[in-house]
Backbone:
């Protein structure tokens, strides 16, 4: 990255323009005066040490790069989305540049600066909530983008791909109700996340339809990580009337639920039933295998990439917001609640 930035800086100095102006020329942006564009392109042509990369970008009007930014690589959730993006790009001449932000605003700003100052054809973003400033900057620099699995509120003009979280929350709860459970806990993400709100709303809707009261003690927030599943399960087991079933906000959370139940000498599903969310590969590797809500993560990555390619080509989208269906995958982690005599 340092070599690329110094090359752009040298071109800017020799052409007597700013670095962002060179970036706009490299990305074939229209907001550059013809005389300035010609001067920058002449310097680029003369700079033989960057001829192959820059000349190709100018000739094709393309850098050949799609940027994908995700919070981290600690979760199989993101690997599935990445896999979907790769599957589509393999059929093109484009390559993917992968960055992580660790959900830190500072890293997100750094990534944004590098994308704007460098050369990219477009971006796919899986970022933390509060993305509006980043999206506005991309728009201002005419960089096409698509958001995957948004965690905050997005305007109607923001292209995005997600899943039917409300329906998934309802389906998981209805399944547990059908087995006879009445004390059903949910461990969601942070309350300000849209996906958490939607899943809790689906959970509440199923309970209300069944004529059951909503117990706030059974609704637990946290991160979509294993430690949250462990900590919140311990808290739920300490209640005067613990749940007989736990609906986890992710399969990774569910692994923490499993660990906490084992630590308390409880068995899945004999003592407590568990449902996850996502259906990542680990769901079939644990024992008992995990009943979960399948979120089509790879398909979300494929859909986002397909949408982005259309935007890059200047084609209109059929819809700015795509929601792919979630579905219940029944395995071995659920059973009717134990009888009171046990």
Residues:
């Amino acid at each position: 990255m340092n070599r690329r930035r110094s090359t752009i800086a040298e071109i800017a100095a020799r052409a007597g323009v700013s670095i962002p102006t060179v970036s706009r020329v490299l990305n074939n942006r229209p907001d550059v005066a013809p005389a300035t564009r010609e001067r920058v392109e002449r310097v680029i042509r003369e700079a033989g040490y960057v001829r192959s990369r820059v000349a190709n970008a100018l000739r094709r009007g393309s850098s050949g790069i799609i940027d994908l930014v995700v919070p981290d690589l600690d979760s199989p959730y993101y690997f599935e989305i990445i896999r979907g993006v790769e599957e589509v790009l393999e059929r093109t001449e484009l390559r993917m540049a992968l960055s992580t932000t660790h959900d830190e605003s500072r890293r997100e700003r750094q990534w944004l600066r590098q994308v704007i100052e460098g050369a990219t054809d477009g971006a796919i973003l899986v970022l933390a909530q509060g993305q509006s400033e980043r999206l506005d900057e991309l728009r201002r620099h005419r960089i096409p983008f698509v958001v995957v699995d948004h965690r905050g509120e997005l305007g109607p003009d923001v292209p995005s791909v997600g899943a039917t979280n409300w329906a998934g929350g309802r389906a998981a709860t209805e399944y547990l109700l059908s087995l006879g459970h009445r004390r059903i806990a949910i461990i969601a993400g942070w309350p300000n996340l849209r996906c958490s709100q939607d899943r809790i709303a689906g959970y509440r809707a199923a309970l209300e339809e069944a004529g059951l009261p909503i117990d706030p003690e059974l609704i637990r927030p946290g991160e979509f990580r294993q430690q949250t599943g462990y900590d919140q399960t311990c808290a739920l087991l300490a209640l005067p009337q613990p749940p007989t079933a736990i609906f986890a906000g992710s399969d990774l959370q569910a692994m923490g639920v499993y660990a906490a139940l084992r630590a308390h000498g409880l068995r899945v599903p004999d003592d407590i039933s568990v449902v996850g969310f996502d259906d990542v590969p680990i769901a079939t590797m644990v024992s008992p295998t995990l009943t979960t809500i399948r979120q089509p993560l790879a398909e979300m990555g494929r859909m986002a990439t397909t949408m982005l390619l259309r935007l890059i080509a200047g084609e209109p989208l059929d819809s700015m917001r795509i929601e792919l269906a979630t579905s219940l995958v029944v395995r071995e982690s659920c059973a009717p609640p134990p009888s009171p005599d046990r």
Residues 65-162+298-324 form a domain with the Rossmann fold fold (CATH 3.40.50.2300). The chain has three domains: 2-60, 65-162+298-324, 165-296. The CA atoms of residues 82 and 301 lie 6 Å apart. The longest strand covers residues 65-70.
